[in-house]
Sequence to fold (218 residues):
Amino acid sequence: MQRSWIILLTTCIFFLPIYIFATPILRMFGEDEAIAVHAGRFSLYMLEYWNLMFLIIMVGLLKNAQIAVAAISICINLHGWEIMIFIGFNAAISVRVSNELGARRTRAAKFSVLIVPLTTGLIGLIFFTTMMALRKVYAIPFTNNPEVVRVVAHLILVFCSTLLSDSVGPVVAGVAVGAGCPALVAYINLGCYYVVGIPLGYLLAFKLDLGVEVVINL
Fold:
């Protein structure tokens, strides 16, 4: 765990300037100005998902780390399946809103903004209900350790709450991107993850000894 922590942290530090300064780097190589600007904004989105690596590192420092890492890895595996659906809706609503606003059809844009979150919220509710029903057996296909199965079942309520919130969050971000505010969305997300989320999670998990339940809810 310590070796992987060093490798991940070193890799992140090495690549971080490339993401942050993507636009000037592309300009230096003679890239088209519009492409350089948009690519620089898009690179900020990649930084949003590095927080998952930090979460694994934090969990690895908790008490009974092997069980905790195994449990949260199983939960994040499902999160990856689910988030792919909502990233698809994120892209769809972004394109739809931008097209409708570009055509000056504001009522159609508002209709899309209403329908898509309701649809993804319903999907999130289905995920929530299904996982709550399967909470005691969900981890069995992934592990033969009964302690890991027990911990996953204990975490399911907190984890399902994040699934439900994630069903709407990416869609709202997609609306903002479609409305022409991609950089604002990226900065808000980065601030929420790295300025608020991870430090708060560290404080609650380690200083207040609330454990993996706090980390998984970031």
